[in-house]
Specification:
Helix content: 40-55%
Oligomer: single chain
Structural class: alpha+beta
Shape: globular
CATH class of the largest domain: Alpha Beta
Distance between the termini: 39 Å
CATH superfamily of the largest domain: Aminohydrolase, N-terminal nucleophile (Ntn) domain
Mean pLDDT: 91
Number of domains: 4
Low-confidence stretches: 463-467
Strand content: 5-15%
């Protein structure tokens, strides 16, 4: 994981390297193995290099191709190297010394704008065509590697982190009120906007071309909605998933440093850890990182405690384990530092725990940590299969599934029937219609009523709470909505930017394009079968992970640990924020409503509306941003 930045000038300014140096100062931490700048005519490019793969030791960027006169700066790990080298026609004897940036450049020479569709991996890159005076940028399919940009009639600027753009006085830092409105509502709107009106993110699976002072974007990849995999039996589905998943993990083990793995004890992280242990040499040191909360009361501990599953994994292999006790750290104690790093508001309540694992990794010389991030979203729990059965009128099969789930989860059938039939088809639509009509009549009747009426009206807050009849969509459509959720991209960006401060590169096998495409194309009964959610993953991991983990039906909830620490260590901070809002917040948030929620949260921290502690957290983060960055009007 490296860093890139660049400036393309359209106004014939004599030298942009002075501005580039300001940008470099904001992202130099991404390049412990070298920072290099190159100016050619109107364009200045920079690369901040972190060497993590065996091929990265041959990287020399920005890289210029003598034949085509293309120049590339890339933050990339390309996983289908052999396939691409075969297609491009590179001599096998010269392949070992070819870095990923050279492969991307050769792919661009061969396929031009279509080259990103040929690439498998995590990447953000920019190529300057010195002859056409054209800039080409691209970002990977899910947005693992960030790319921010600012465009005007005089200049186009891009970088791996938003702070690099904000370092330039010519880049406006006007607040994006709409994005703030979404944040207060705990809504992730899209993968384009930032909290600054004129700074944007390049969307995942998208190219951007800048030519003669204008730019356009275009999607280069999307899921195949018409394709469904058909195999002979369950074992064939499981075996094919196993092969693809093993390859996704293997690709992410290309590293010149010790390897780390996040281990929660859940199905996803356990699968990643155990597959990693199988793929690496027995003599290879494998570090694992887990979070534990032994200080919680018994009723809260049972929601979060995964130690028995962690121990089952650790007992089966040779690991160097790093347990992290949540009580030892305060969620918001380093908020000023976190804001300085990220440059804009973020929603990451458990950041304080991740930061500890990255700090330990840095101390142990670990540059790569694999995780099970969003495996449940990618594979899918499969409950949309029940909706599919109802839509097709297969009520007997629907009831068979209800009985199976009841047996596996030890939940009463009537409760499941309520959850999967009565609620989605009767109660929820009626409740949504009631709330929608009420909001039309009463402007205060929004889903999140902490926003003032004026701000709500001017930024159409109510419109984002429109009726959504999710129950009437097919299983595949429901899965697609989860796979393309902006929340996934936001999370990957957060991991990337914060981990970079510790010279750590998070890698997520479940976010491999091949894994995601395969899971999306599966029949819905391979995601939920015989009462087992995420069926295909469980079957594929038979004999790979401990049986106790494979047969888990519960999922840990980290919120009790966060709530405990929020009350114990930040009560006064929250009180100060609520009592002394920044002027910008005072105009858009109902102070009395926030005080009411704070009071209820203090009295019943674990039992009140779970939105309340998230509201308080987001307001503290917003206050810090406004105060620290001075973006709001006085």
């Amino acid at each position: 994981m490296s860093g890139i930045a660049g400036i393309v000038c359209f106004d014939n300014r004599p030298d942009s390297m002075h501005e580039m140096q300001k940008m470099v100062g904001s992202i130099a931490h991404r390049g412990p193995d070298g920072v290099n700048c190159l100016q050619v005519g109107e364009a200045s490019l920079v690369n901040c290099l972190l060497k993590t793969t065996p091929e990265s030791i041959f990287e020399k960027q920005p890289l210029q191709d003598d034949e085509s006169k293309y120049i590339i700066t890339a933050d990339a790990r390309i996983d289908n190297r052999i396939e691409l080298l075969d297609k491009i026609g590179i001599d096998k004897r010269a392949r070992e010394n070819i870095p990923d940036s050279r492969i991307i450049l050769e792919a661009y020479k061969k396929w031009h704008y279509d080259c990103p569709g040929q690439l498998i991996g995590d990447y953000a890159f920019a190529i300057w065509d010195t002859r056409r005076k054209e800039l080409f940028c691209a970002r990977d399919h899910i947005g693992v590697r960030p790319l921010f940009y600012y465009s005007s009639d005089k200049v186009f600027i891009f970088a791996s982190e938003i702070n690099a753009l904000l370092a330039l006085p010519g880049v406006p830092n006007t607040i994006n009120d709409r994005r703030v409105a979404e944040y207060i509502q705990l809504v992730v709107g899209n993968t384009t906007d930032t909290y600054y009106k004129n700074i944007f993110r390049l969307e995942p699976a998208t190219i951007l071309v800048v030519h003669k002072g204008k730019h356009f974007t275009k999607k280069y990849w999307e899921y195949n909605h018409d394709y469904t995999i058909k195999r002979k039996d369950n074992s064939e589905y499981a075996q094919e998933f196993k092969e693809i998943f093993f390859e996704a993990v293997r690709c992410r083990l290309r590293t010149i440093s010790p390897i780390g793995c996040a281990l929660s004890g859940g199905l996803d992280s356990s699968s990643v850890v155990c597959v990693t242990r199988k793929l690496v040499d027995i003599s290879t040191q494998l570090h694992t990182f887990s979070y534990n909360f032994p200080f919680l009361s018994a009723d809260q501990l049972k929601k979060i405690d995964e130690r028995q599953y962690q121990e089952a994994i650790l007992a089966r292999g040779d690991y160097i384990h790093h347990p992290i006790v949540g009580h030892d750290f305060a969620p918001l104690s380093e908020l000023a530092v976190h804001m300085e790093i990220y440059g804009q508001p973020f929603f990451f309540p458990h950041l304080y725990l991740e930061m500890q694992s990255w700090l330990i990794a840095q101390r142990n010389g670990i540059h790569v940590i694999l995780n099970g991030l969003d495996g449940d979203l990618v594979v899918s729990h499969g409950y949309e299969h029940l909706q599919q059965l109802i839509l097709k009128g297969r009520f007997c099969k629907f009831y068979e599934n209800i009985k199976d789930i009841s047996r596996r989860h030890n939940v009463a059938e009537i409760r499941l029937l309520s959850s999967f039939m009565f609620r989605p088809y009767f109660r929820d639509p009626l409740a949504q219609m009631y709330n929608f009509l009420k909001a039309k009549i009463d402007s205060d009747a929004t889903t999140n009523s902490i926003v003032t009426e004026e701000f709500s009206r001017s930024h159409k807050v109510r419109d984002r709470n429109e009726m959504k009849f999710a129950s009437l969509r097919s299983a595949k459509r429901c899965h697609l909505q989860n796979l393309t959720s902006p929340l996934l991209t936001d999370t990957l960006e957060l991991f990337n930017i914060f981990a970079a401060r510790f010279r750590v590169e998070p890698r997520s096998p479940f976010c491999d394009r091949r894994v995601m495409e395969f899971c999306y194309a599966l029949p819905s009964d391979q995601k939920l079968k015989n009462g087992w959610s995420r069926y295909v993953l469980r079957e594929a991991m038979q004999g790979v992970i401990p049986q106790t983990v494979k047969e888990r039906v519960d999922k840990s909830d980290l919120s009790p640990g966060f709530i405990h620490n929020l009350i114990l260590k930040h009560d006064q901070l929250i009180e100060d924020v609520v009592s002394h809002f920044h002027p910008y917040l005072s105009k858009i948030v109902k102070r009395n409503e926030i005080k009411k929620r704070l009071s209820l949260f203090r009295k019943h921290p674990y039992d009140c509306n779970r939105l309340y502690h998230l509201n308080l957290y987001s307001l503290v983060v917003l206050q810090q941003w406004l105060t620290q960055k001075h973006k709001a009007p006085a």
